[in-house]
Amino acid sequence: DKISGYKMTKTSIENILNRLSPMPLKNRNVLPGIEKGRGDILIAGILILLCVMDRFKYELLYVSDYGLREGSLFERFLK
Prior knowledge:
Blueprint: E1 7-9, H1 10-20, H2 25-28, H3 42-55, E2 60-62, H4 68-77
Antiparallel strand pairs: 1-2
């Protein structure tokens, strides 16, 4: 409930990237809310997200905690 629907601007995402990029992996791995073993892919994921936002000229996104499976089901059955 705290995450779904949360709004993030491109600028706020860039700020997160700037804070996390210089951080050692061992520190990223223990950040609150980061799944175990995901600290190594945070930077790449943020960069991909920013590239997609640039490509489609998005300045804002809404966070969802649904996964790929839920999205596939919604797409298939809610048409």
